Amino acid sequence: MQPNIFSRQPPSFRSFIIAVITCLVVLFFDWRMPYVIQPARDVLYAAYNPIYALASYPVLSREWLNQQTKSEAQLRRENTAMQAELLQAQVRLQKLSELSAENTRLRGLLDTPLIIDGRMEIAEVIGTDADPLRHIIIINRGSTDHLKVGQTVLDDKGIMGQIINVYPHSSRVMLLSDKEHSLSVRLERTGMRAIVSGTGDLGRLKMEYVPTSANIQVGDKVFSSGLGEHFPAGYAVGTVAKIKRHNSGEFAEIDVTPSAQLATGHHVVVLFSESLAKEQPYADR
Q1: For a pLDDT cut of 90, what percent of the chain falls above it?
Q2: Distance of CA 116 to the CA centre of its chain
Q3: Is the distance from CB of 158 to CB of 238 less than 8 angstroms?
Q4: Same CATH topology for 120-174 and 180-266?
């Protein structure tokens, strides 16, 4: 009787030998006849997939969290950078808007349809008088620019006022709305002459010494007449805004809205011409 080689071996050794023989058989069939092993392989792969997924979950979760953290930090950095760029663009846009508006104002001054016969000087408003009851502005041109007391100052809409003090690098200009200011005017529609004075209100002038029976209407255009040679003739002063006639009074109360931007003007023109300080003849229209 042949002795059994497994009879005296421990169970673990027998299991090892059986496993080795099984592996060798499987390897042989996989090498020589793979179509026999393939169905079993597919079944094993399908059974092991959930185990693989569960085993890889901690690693995938850590990678996903790292990616999310990096993405959030990157988004914050990009958001901060974009906000900074947006702020810079808005600042540049504000500057461009101001430059565009200033360019428009300067073009309006240079292309003004007002009658200009002689040299002019463009100046910038740099301040106002310290007295709140006076309507006086300060411009950045003075005696070094050959400015003199009495010169007319206007913007692209009409007369603003007149120079009353000249310093080396600046001048003071009394606006039409100042209570101490007045000038001779005429109505465009009828040619009637009158006096327009300041009221202390930047948006309102008053026309004085006009009879209640005078031919004047709301909307009439008012121009400088040139009388007195303080202002050149033919420049816009304002528009008649309100007329109040009194039956018992000799003169009417007439409000005139100034043409020039007395409250918001930033650039002005100083006229040098003396030949314009002569009344222009009225022509019927």
Answers
A1: 32
A2: 33
A3: yes
A4: yes
CA proximity to 192, closest of 226, 215, 159, 224: 215
As to burial, measured by CB atoms within 10 angstroms (0-12 exposed, 13-18 middle, 19+ buried), residue 7 is: exposed
Distances (CA, A) of 177 to 4, 158, 163, 181: 132, 13, 14, 7
The answer to whether 129 and 181 are in contact (CB under 8 A) is: no
- Which residue ranges make up each domain of the chain? 13-53, 76-113, 120-174, 180-266
Question: Could you give the angle at the alpha carbon of 97 between the alpha carbons of 93 and 100, nearest 5°?
Answer: 135
Decide if domain 120-174 falls under CATH 2.40.10.340: yes
Report the C-alpha gap between 185 and 279 in whole angstroms.
10
Tell me which fold the domain 180-266 belongs to.
Thrombin, subunit H (2.40.10)
pLDDT tens profile 156-188: 888 999 999 999 999 999 999 999 999 999 898
| Averaged pLDDT, 21-44 | 70
- pLDDT range class, residue 19, cuts 50, 70, 90: confident
